[in-house]
Amino acid sequence: MKVLIPTDGSADAQAAMQTALRLLSPADRHLDLLCVAPSYQKGAARKTYEQRILSETTEILERARAQITGNGAAVHLVTAVGSAAAAIVSRAPDYDLTVIGAKGRGAGANVGLGPVASRVVEHVAAPVLIGRELRSETGSRVLIAVDGSTASLSAVETLASLFDLRNCSVTLMHVAETPWIHLGLDENWETFDEEDKERSEAGAFEKQMTRDGELIIERARDVLRASGCAVETSVNEGNPSDEILSEADRGQYDLIVVGASGTRDLKHSMLGSVSAKIAWNAPCSVLIVREPL
């Protein structure tokens, strides 16, 4: 397993690294620690600048490596000069996972993404772990959002192959958008009499959505059977991103796993609205796995 872990020495970068070390499978870890120095600015003595920046990046990387020592991982230190986001995005395709801190230097809020993290999440096609501090001291609580898409199933497979789930409690969650969204009904659909619902097209549609959700859950559960983790399930209705974020907060989860669909070409990349909202607003770490090409 090859993992890219960029660091700028900030508390957010350190938290992301520590979260990754605890969540990832301990077997066959190859970790590349990357520190990107800003480009030379005119007006400063180039030689002096290069000496100083080399010293600073080396110190940051050595501090990070010291936190990993003893965990059995092969660690390689990598330096680069220029745009941090560009350096990470260009390297990420060569790795099984890229780990990024949510904010970076000078960040204040617990949620949101800094400029580097937001670009990495938007443009990296390989799996990305947005690492925030874990809530649980022992074991971990993982919320997997599944919607039946190829990206969603790939997210479950990535979790099962790269992460250590032996001491995790896992919840598979499917959220179906409420029928009135799809059928143009009034928002007071939920107040309708049950008999009226049963006889209506929307009622039949709602039942079918529930059945579909249960099948989606079972396919994801099949992928996790060999991991040995305890799995609970939940099929809900509502706005998917809102329901997932509410459950993550209410259940004190350490990690949300979500598949990301959206447009991609050589110049552009766009996350789906659900995965983007979760990445920005989650109270915990988020694993984002793109739809396979």
What can you see in these coordinates?
It is a single chain. The chain is α/β, with parallel strands linked by helices and 293 residues long. It has two domains: 1-133, Rossmann fold, CATH 3.40.50; 136-293, HUPs (Rossmann fold), CATH 3.40.50. The protein contains ten helices and ten strands. It has helices at residues 11-23, 46-68, 84-91, 115-123, 150-162, 179-183, 194-199, 201-224, 240-250, 273-281; strands at residues 2-6, 30-37, 74-81, 97-101, 128-131, 140-145, 168-176, 230-237, 255-260, 285-290. The protein has a ten-stranded mixed sheet, with helices on both faces. Helix 4 links the parallel strand 4 (97-101) and strand 5. It is elongated, with a radius of gyration of 21 Å. 39% of the residues are buried. Mean pLDDT is 84; it is low at 263-270.
